[in-house]
Design goal:
The chain has nine helices and no strands. The protein is mainly alpha-helical. It has two domains: 94 residues; 75 residues, Orthogonal Bundle (Arc Repressor Mutant, subunit A). This is Sigma-70 family RNA polymerase sigma factor.
Length: 183
């Protein structure tokens, strides 16, 4: 029976001192795969994987895992497999990310005006109470009829209309106030 086998058994029984010693022993392997993965958090992912591997090495059931060289091989292969899995996961994330299309940034003057108007309207809407914002959003942005909105909110169509009119009046006041502040 080897020294590493004893440490693994003690680590599996909850002895943190031996768990740390094993982690230290395999730190160069972790560093190697961390460099190859080259993403933030890769080292942490690999350390967590190593801790899980240590916890579940069947040293009590498999007689071959009583030898240090077998345990080293088992851990090395397990870490390599985890590296492959993390590498594939990271590559999937990178491949699925949307690249920046610089043509989007070169908009025409008309497009820029529309964008500015939309930002201005959304800013105005944010200053309304939530109920009024919801009414305006549903009627003018989502194109929901007042009747359908009344059914959804379980109120009368007249109540929706009154709330809409109050919201429009509030928007006019807010817009006028902002225009006065600019002048």
């Amino acid at each position: 029976m080897g020294e590493l086998s004893d440490k693994v058994k003690k680590a599996q029984m909850g002895n943190e001192k031996y768990m740390l010693q094993i982690l230290e022993k395999f730190n160069p392997l972790i560093k190697k795969y961390n460099r190859q993965l080259n993403y933030d958090g890769a080292e942490s992912d690999l350390i967590i994987a190593l801790i899980e591997i240590i916890k579940y090495i069947p040293v009590f059931k498999n007689i071959n895992l009583q030898k240090d060289n077998c345990i080293v091989g088992y851990i090395s292969i397990s870490i390599k497999n985890k590296y492959i899995k993390l590498s594939k996961k990271y590559m999937d994330i990178v491949n699925n990310e949307t690249s920046l299309d610089l043509n989007i940034l070169s908009t025409s003057e008309e497009d820029q005006r529309l964008i500015d108007n939309r930002i201005y309207v959304l800013d105005l809407l944010d200053k309304l109470p939530n109920y009024q914002k919801r009414i305006i959003n549903n009627i003018y942005i989502q194109n929901v009829s007042e009747t359908d909105l009344a059914k959804e909110l379980n109120i009368s169509r007249q109540s929706v209309n009154r709330a809409k009119n109050r919201a429009l009046n509030n928007l006019k006041k807010i817009a006028a106030k902002q225009m006065n502040n600019i002048s």
